[in-house]
Each structure stands twice: as structure tokens, then as C-alpha cells.
TrEMBL record, chain A:
Membrane-topology annotation of the record: Peripheral membrane protein
Protein's cellular compartments: Early endosome membrane
Domain PX: 52-173
Protein name: Sorting nexin-30
Record-stated family: Belongs to the sorting nexin family.
GO terms, molecular function: phosphatidylinositol binding
Quaternary structure and interacting proteins, as annotated: Heterodimer; heterodimerizes with SNX4.
UniProtKB/TrEMBL annotation, chain B:
Entries under Pfam families matching the protein: PX
Keyword Transport: yes
CDD domains: BAR_SNX4, PX_SNX4
Primary role: Involved in the regulation of endocytosis and in several stages of intracellular trafficking. Plays a role in recycling endocytosed transferrin receptor and prevent its degradation. Involved in autophagosome assembly by regulating trafficking and recycling of phospholipid scramblase ATG9A.
Main subcellular location of this protein, as a coarse class: membrane
Protein source organism: Colobus angolensis palliatus (Peters' Angolan colobus)
Keywords of this entry: Acetylation, Endosome, Lipid-binding, Membrane, Protein transport, Transport
Any GO BP: protein transport
SMART domains tied to this protein: PX
UniProt topology in membrane: Peripheral membrane protein
PX domain: residues covered: 14-140
Protein origin, superkingdom: Eukaryota
Name listed for the protein in its UniProt record: Sorting nexin-4
Length: 400, 403
């Protein structure tokens, strides 16, 4: 049964949507009061966090060395005034596989919603050092982004598994429990395991699909360009590191020119350092975010496909009913359920897509401005270095 | 640039044009070459106006001839070098082709610089052949060759021999030779690496151009983000194309370094001349000493040194006193001559060292001035490049901000 959250959420997303007959389905508890609904509504539009009631931060990575394995845990700090949380503040430690578990659970329990992506699970050993500061920091940022996206989501942030993830002292115990029980929603949607082929995707979803395809393509190209730039910059850096010292060698041969030449050598050294900082920043901050968005759009595409499945099932059942003359004119309950499911899904998807588009715009604005900033800082460092040696070069030496 | 020369007037020299020509060479074969127009103007003191006094065309080989002549007749002078015959230390985008217009242009500037250096040299500017180079188009080559300077040139073999065998060269010249070797080595290295740096920098800038295209394509599917992306893309294109001018400017810096790379060779030539003269002197002194010894032995009858005459005397019997007298006479004449020669060689040597060292001091000052200027202009180029970079990325950032 769809969670009541969906019923509430729909009212701000799409006014034309047909509400299912009957009130709240039995067996599920109603979410909080209208005040929390208000919060959820405001949460969407609000950027400055003034009316937020849930804050999550991922920080403080720590290495754990055990007999069987070595791994990293991150501290998750949660602050909330929501009634779903017993305490106002929580602090727990989680490792990557816990995040992975959370994501699976969310996909299972909220199949009509877009779940944010996680940074890649597997890293090729030997190529990347899983315990290097840079790698851990990059991952931490991605995990933090992941949780923040869930936090920002009006439906996902109320998910039970999410709550447990943020609060439970012993997550493993809860995990074991979860294996035995499947959520009802998960079960019912899992029923739709395919075998239904959708004839035509409705125009609006086809447009979303096309957009995502092109978007992923363009992102892929940008990723390749960015990587190529970093590669060229590193090769440039290698040459610079040989170039600078030659001026130094030359200065040892000279008298009056010794200081100026040494100055130029030092200057080139400073520029080399600045360049190294630029390439490190781009590798750590720019590329991972770009890649994550490609994963994000892939997630959205698979949600689209699931939606297609639901629609296909509905249409198939509707057709089947049309052929069975005896049920006319009353539409059987299970077909109605299908229609419900489909309409829920459509609404959720559209709402999520809109939210995703907005976030994407913010995220890319920030990402690209960041890229511009880093380049500006690089040039400013070099400028300062060269401007500072002009007086040295112009200095007239006293007759020796 | 105006300079004094023995016309006692200020003159301006410029190599103003370069032209492709075809003609027949010494072996009567068709060839293509570049000719350069040399214009000389004299500047009237009174109104500062310059009047074109001479204008003629010369090709590179004639410049080479002039320089070779100067090397022979002024061995104590650090003779200004010519720009390179073939393009070296090129980074990939530049053509290594001698006919390439950029190369020809840079060579034109180099040749002008060569003439200006000579014209501003206190001694070289007075040379008649140099004067004729600027003023007499026809027959100049014949005139140079008639001086017979090729015959006066020291053979390379002789010079090499002297280098290895000289015993007491002036330490200053030994040090200077060492310095010029090191200078040549370090500037070569610098130019090689600089070319590689230029190559890489070119790559970095050009790849950014790809952003222009992809941002444009991406903006087509976006609503609010579209404009910002599109205009940012345009700035990326500007960034990518800015590198061409930047690296063009840097070539001038490379040319300034190259001149001093070739100057190192000129320095070495002066040192070699000193070694040659010193070696000559040492040989002459040695020869004189041995003749004196021979003479003494003959006179006193003692044989201290091994001589063929001594051997044959032992084998075939002693010579007559008349014969001995005759030999002593010959030796005494030779000794006299030898002493005169040694005296003049000594004098020559000292003159050479004095004059050469004076020019070397002049050269050192010039070198320090010029290279400082070159480094300053290089720094200025880098500053300009940084400022352009900041501008472009700031513009792009503003576009991203509007997304």
C-alpha cells in the first residue's frame, strides 16, 4: 500500500491528479500533523535552511584495523526537531556498506522515487589507494551529499530505514531483522517483475527520457575533456619542474645575473606548485561530482523504466478486463489498484524530476563556478610570483 | 637605433624586407633563396630627419661571408653572431622549414640585430668591408675575397692542436673558455626544455576549446541553464585561441637567448686565438732555446744533448774545425732571427691579450644588460598571460553564476 506520505505529497505536486477512492489505507499510521506537512512543503522551496527541521553531516573518517579486514567509518551527526526522532541529536558511526544497505532499502521501499546515487563501490586496488587522505575525503564529501539529498527529500527523509540509519546504535542487528521482513510496499511493487511491455511512453516521460539520454552523453563528454585537461596540465607540470632548475644552474655560472636568474627559477617553482594544487583540486572536487551526476541520471532512467512497467501492467490488466465482458461496467479492484499505483508513480516521478532539475542547476552552478574559481586562484598565484620578481630584475647592482 | 660610424654621422640601419628569389647557384643549379633588403639612413643632426642613403639586397650567405671576414681580421673581438641558419629548438606547432614566413620574419629581425651590433661596436663599425656591405651591392663578394682573408684564417686543426699542447695560457682565458662551454650547455638545455614547455602549454589551452562546443550542445537541452552555459562556452573558445599570440611573443624571448648561445661560440673563438698565439710563442721560445744550446755545445765541444750530428760524428769521425765554424755561424744567425721573432711574438701576444680583454669586458657588460632586459620582458609576458587568464575565467564565472 502506498504510504500516506504519498497522498499528502501529491497535493502540492500536481493538482489535476485523481485521488484514489477511500481514505488512508488501513494498517499504516498517518504521518504527523499538518505542521509537519507544512514543513515538508516548505523544505522543498527553502534554500537558506531557516525552516529546516533535519540536519545531517558526515565527517570524521577513521580507519579501523581488524583481523579480517581494514575499513573506514564516518561519523554521522543528526540534529532534528521532528517527532520521528526521540532525541534532538544523534551521533553514530557508519561504513560504506551501511550506506549501500541504506540505498538498497530505500530503492526497495520507495520504488517510485529517485534515490540519490552513492560513490562507486569498487575501486581497483593498486590503482587507487583506498586509505589515502584524498580518496577518503572525496568519498566523505560524496556520502555527505548523498545523505543531504535524502534529507532534502520530502518523502525519503521520513523513511523508516533512513531514520534507523541515522539513529541506531547497532545497525547490524536491525539489518538482520530486515532480511526477514519485506515492507509491504516493496512486496507489492516487486510483483511487477516485468513481462509487461509498454507500447508507448507518454510524451512527458518520453521527453524526460530523451533529456536524460542527451544529458548523460554531454556529461560524459565533459568528463573526458576534464580528464584530458588534467592530463595535459600534469605533463606541463613535469616540464616546468625541469625548466625552473635550469635557470638555477645558469645562475651559478654568473656574477651580476646570478640573483635575477635565481629569482626566475624560484618564480617558476612557485608557478609549478600552484599548478599542482589546481590539478589536485580538479581531480578531487570536480571529477567525482561530475561522475556522480552521470550515476544520478542513470538512476532516474531506471526509475522511468520501473514506471513504464507499472503502466504496462495497468494497461495489460485493463485490456484483459475489456475482453472479459462479465465484469462490465464495474472496474475490478485490482485494476483500480494498478491505476492507483501508476498515477502515484507518475506524480512522484514528476515531482522528483522537478526537484532533481532544480538541484542539478544549483549543483552545476556551484561546480562550474568552483572550477572557474580554482583557475582564477591559480593565475593569481602565478601573477603574484612574477610581479614580485620584477623589482628584483630591475635592481641595479652596485659596482663590485 | 642610431649609431656613430666612421662616416662621422649618425646612421640608421634596417633590414626592412625579405623576398623569395630563384637563381642559379655556384654549380649552375636552380635554387630558391630569400633575399633581404638593407636600408641605410643617415640622420641629420640639425633637424633629426633621416635620409635614405643606401639600399641593397643581400642573402644569408653574404652575411656569413662578412662575419667570416670579421672573424679573421678581428680575432681579439667577440664578433656578434648570426641568427641560426636552420630552425632549431622548435616546439611542434612552429615550422622548422626555412621558407616558413614566421621563420623568415624572425631571421630578418636577427640579421638586422647583427648589423646593428656591428655598427654599435667601437672598432668593428669602422671596418671598410662592413661599409661596403651596406653600400656596394655589386662586386662586394669579389672585394672581400680579394683581401685574401681565407688564407689568413687559422686552420681548425692548428687551433685544436694548440688547445691541447699549450703550457701557459693566460688563466683568465682558460676560465673564460670554461665559462663559454658551460654557458652554451646551459642555454641549449634551457631552450630545449622551454620548447617542450611551450608544447604542453599549447595542449592545455587548446583542449579547453572543447568545452566551448560541448557547453553549446548542452545548452540546447536546458531551459534556465542554457544561456549561462552558452556564453561560458564562448569564453572557453577565447581562452583556447589566446595561446597562439602568447607563444608567438615567447619566441622573441627564445631568440634573445639564442643570440647569447651563439655568442658563447664567439667567446670561445677569442680564447682559441689566444691559445694559438701562446702556443706559437712557446714553440718559438723552445726552438730558440734548443738552437742556443746546440750553439753552445758546438762552441765548447761538449755534447750534452743528443743530436744526429753527434751520432754521425761518433760513427764516421769528427768534423773539421772549418765545418764546425760554419755551423756555428748559421746557428748564430738563426738565433738572432729567432730572438727578433720571439720579441715581436711576445709583443703581439701581449697586445692581443690587452685588446681582447678590453672587448671581453665590454661584452660582459652588454651581456648582463641584454639578458636582464630579456628576463624582464619574459616576466612581463608571463604577467600579461596571467592577467588574460584571470579575465577569461572571471568572465566564465559570471556566466556560470547566471545559470
Amino acid at each position: 500500500t502506498p504510504s500516506p506520505d504519498l497522498l499528502m505529497a501529491r497535493s502540492f505536486g500536481d493538482k489535476d491528479l485523481i485521488l484514489p477512492n477511500g481514505g488512508t489505507p488501513a494498517g499504516t499510521s498517518s504521518p504527523a500533523s499538518s505542521s509537519s506537512l507544512l514543513n515538508r512543503l516548505q523544505l522543498d522551496d527553502d534554500i537558506d535552511g531557516e525552516t529546516r527541521d533535519l540536519f545531517v553531516i558526515v565527517d570524521d573518517p577513521k580507519k579501523h584495523v581488524c583481523t579480517m579486514e581494514t575499513y573506514i567509518t564516518y561519523r554521522i551527526t543528526t540534529k532534528s526537531t521532528r517527532v520521528e526522532f526521540d532525541l534532538p541529536e544523534y551521533s553514530v558511526r557508519r561504513r560504506y556498506q551501511d550506506f549501500d544497505w541504506l540505498r538498497s532499502k530505500l530503492e526497495e521501499s520507495q520504488p517510485t522515487h529517485l534515490i540519490p546515487p552513492l560513490p562507486e563501490k569498487f575501486v581497483v586496488k593498486g590503482v587507487v589507494d583506498r586509505f589515502s587522505e584524498e580518496f577518503v575525503e572525496t568519498r566523505r564529501k560524496a556520502l555527505d551529499k548523498f545523505l543531504k539529498r535524502i534529507t532534502d527529500h520530502p518523502v525519503l527523509s521520513f523513511n523508516e530505514h533512513f531514520n534507523v540509519f541515522l539513529t541506531a546504535k547497532d545497525l547490524n542487528a536491525y539489518k538482520k531483522q530486515g532480511i526477514a521482513l519485506l515492507t509491504r510496499m516493496g512486496e507489492s511493487v516487486k510483483h511487477v517483475t516485468g513481462g509487461y511491455k509498454l507500447r508507448t511512453r507518454p510524451l512527458e516521460f518520453a521527453a524526460i527520457g530523451d533529456y536524460l539520454d542527451t544529458f548523460a552523453l554531454k556529461l560524459g563528454t565533459i568528463d573526458r575533456i576534464a580528464q584530458r585537461i588534467i592530463k595535459e596540465e600534469i605533463e606541463y607540470l613535469v616540464e616546468l619542474r625541469e625548466y625552473g632548475p635550469v635557470y638555477s644552474t645558469w645562475s651559478t655560472l654568473e656574477g651580476e645575473l646570478a640573483e635575477p636568474l635565481e629569482g626566475v627559477s624560484a618564480c617558476i617553482g612557485n608557478c609549478s606548485t600552484a599548478l599542482e594544487e589546481l590539478t589536485d583540486d580538479m581531480t578531487e572536487d570536480f571529477l567525482p561530482v561530475l561522475r556522480e551526476y552521470i550515476l544520478y541520471s542513470d538512476s532516474m532512467k531506471s526509475v522511468l523504466k520501473k514506471r513504464d512497467q507499472v503502466q504496462a501492467e495497468y494497461e495489460a490488466k485493463l485490456e484483459a478486463v475489456a475482453l472479459r465482458k462479465e465484469d462490465r461496467p464495474k472496474v475490478p479492484a485490482d485494476v483500480e489498484k494498478c491505476q492507483d499505483r501508476m498515477e502515484c508513480f507518475n506524480a512522484d516521478l514528476k515531482a522528483d524530476m522537478e526537484r532533481w532539475q532544480n538541484n542539478k542547476r544549483q549543483d552545476f552552478r556551484q561546480l562550474l563556478m568552483g572550477m572557474a574559481d580554482k583557475n582564477i586562484q591559480y593565475y593569481e598565484k602565478c601573477l603574484m610570483a612574477w610581479e614580485s620578481i620584477i623589482p628584483l630584475l630591475q635592481e641595479k647592482q652596485e659596482a663590485k | 637605433m642610431t649609431h656613430n660610424n666612421f662616416w662621422l654621422k649618425k646612421i640608421e640601419i634596417s633590414v626592412s624586407e625579405a623576398e623569395k628569389r630563384t637563381g642559379r647557384n655556384a654549380m649552375n643549379m636552380q635554387e630558391t633563396y630569400t633575399a633581404y633588403l638593407i636600408e641605410t639612413r643617415s640622420v641629420e643632426h640639425t633637424d633629426g630627419q633621416s635620409v635614405l642613403t643606401d639600399s641593397l639586397w643581400r642573402r644569408y650567405s653574404e652575411f656569413e661571408l662578412l662575419r667570416n671576414y670579421l672573424l679573421v681580421y678581428y680575432p681579439h673581438i667577440v664578433v656578434p653572431p648570426l641568427p641560426e641558419k636552420r630552425a632549431e629548438f622548435v616546439w611542434h606547432k612552429l615550422s622548422a622549414d626555412n621558407m616558413d614566413p614566421d621563420f623568415v620574419e624572425r631571421r630578418r629581425i636577427g640579421l638586422e640585430n647583427f648589423l646593428l651590433r656591428i655598427a654599435s661596436h667601437p672598432i668593428l663599425c669602422r671596418d671598410k668591408i662592413f661599409y661596403l656591405f651596406l653600400t656596394q651591392e655589386g662586386n662586394w663578394k669579389e672585394t672581400v675575397n680579394e683581401t685574401g682573408f681565407q688564407l689568413k684564417a687559422d686552420s681548425r686543426l692548428k687551433a685544436l692542436n694548440a688547445t691541447f699542447r699549450v703550457k701557459n695560457p693566460d688563466k683568465r682565458f682558460t676560465d673564460l673558455k670554461h665559462y663559454s662551454d658551460e654557458l652554451q650547455s646551459v642555454i641549449s638545455h634551457l631552450l630545449r626544455v622551454r620548447a617542450r614547455v611551450a608544447d604542453r602549454l599549447y595542449g592545455v589551452y587548446k583542449v579547453h576549446g572543447n568545452y566551448g562546443r560541448v557547453f553549446s550542445e548542452w545548452s540546447a537541452i536546458e531551459k534556465e541553464m542554457g544561456d549561462g552555459l552558452q556564453s561560458a562556452g564562448h569564453h572557453m573558445d577565447v581562452y583556447a585561441s589566446s595561446i597562439d599570440d602568447i607563444l608567438e611573443d615567447e619566441e622573441h624571448y627564445a631568440d634573445q637567448l639564442k643570440e647569447y648561445l651563439f655568442y658563447a661560440e664567439a667567446l670561445r673563438a677569442v680564447c682559441r686565438k689566444h691559445e694559438l698565439m701562446q702556443y706559437d710563442l712557446e714553440m718559438a721560445a723552445q726552438d730558440l732555446a734548443s738552437k742556443k744550446q746546440q750553439c753552445e755545445e758546438l762552441a765548447t765541444g761538449t755534447v750534452r744533448t743528443f743530436s744526429l750530428k753527434g751520432m754521425t760524428t761518433k760513427l764516421f769521425g769528427q768534423e773539421t774545425p772549418e765545418q764546425r765554424e760554419a755551423r756555428i755561424k748559421v746557428l748564430e744567425e738563426q738565433i738572432n732571427e729567432g730572438e727578433q721573432q720571439l720579441k715581436s711574438k711576445n709583443l703581439e701576444g701581449r697586445e692581443f691579450v690587452k685588446n681582447a680583454w678590453a672587448d671581453i669586458e665590454r661584452f660582459k657588460e652588454q651581456k648582463n644588460r641584454d639578458l636582464k632586459e630579456a628576463l624582464i620582458s619574459y616576466a612581463v609576458m608571463q604577467i600579461s598571460m596571467c592577467k588574460k587568464g584571470i579575465q577569461v575565467w572571471t568572465n566564465a564565472k559570471e556566466c556560470f553564476n547566471k545559470m
